[in-house]
Amino acid sequence: MLIKEVESFIEEDLGYDDVSCTIVPDRPSEAIIITKEACVIAGIKEAKSIFCYLGIQAETTFKDGDHLKEGEIIFRLKGGAVSILRAERLSLNFLGHLSGIATLTRACLDTVRRYSETTRVACTRKTTPGIRKFEKLAVAAGGGDPHRFNLSDSVMIKDNHIKLMGIEAAIDAAKKTSFTRKIEVEVESAENAVLAAELGADIIMLDNMPPEAVLKTLEILKEKELRNSVIVEASGGISQENLGGYAKTGVDVISMGSLIHKSRWIDISLEIIS
Q1: Which domain holds residue 131?
Q2: Could you tell me if 133 and 256 lie in one domain?
Q3: Mind telling me the catalytic residues?
Q4: Tens digits of residue pLDDT in 67-92
């Protein structure tokens, strides 16, 4: 986490007159951070950045992606009492939110692995403004793929691009942007999937297709000897409940906005011990 980010988060939380933390005597103190439920931990580095900025000594044996059992101590803290109180909510917010994302991602990946050893589980750009990179790194901690971090990473031609330009013109324009960027095309039919592959798309996103349609599209691409020339991604309306059906198709990537926007925060708390 950059210093300017830490300062921005702290400024938001403390405000201009922190009366809550400064009423306590600022003496040396110790605290622990524990998880009240089993989880895949994430946010370790972000929490460390907050503790470091506030002059708190933080010890942990864990790293992002580790499995934790209920009641495990994540951090042991030493520092001024005021600083520990100031770090409490901010660090717990990151740990709870990011661990929730990592835990859900790992659960979804476990489901996919029952049917496929190669299919990737990815998130999308449906993220919280201002903390996207942290949320995407939490997906990675859970074993998922972060997909694009922003619009500069690759060219994605979506339905509205196609409505404005058509597939051929959009792919042609995308190829002129840079030879280093992959081109992904969102399609809603097998016909357009074939067309996008023939026009040289690197990735084809099958949007809002049920598993049966995904499987049929993959078969058509194989029949036309196009299957091995593209990465095929299924996306749209995919949840934990229907994930297995998509995994059975053998699609290369399953992207799920729900990894982030439907994740549940993990219950993590800080306790002063001296």
Answers
A1: 115-261
A2: yes
A3: 89, 126, 158, 186, 207
A4: 999 999 999 999 999 999 999 999 99
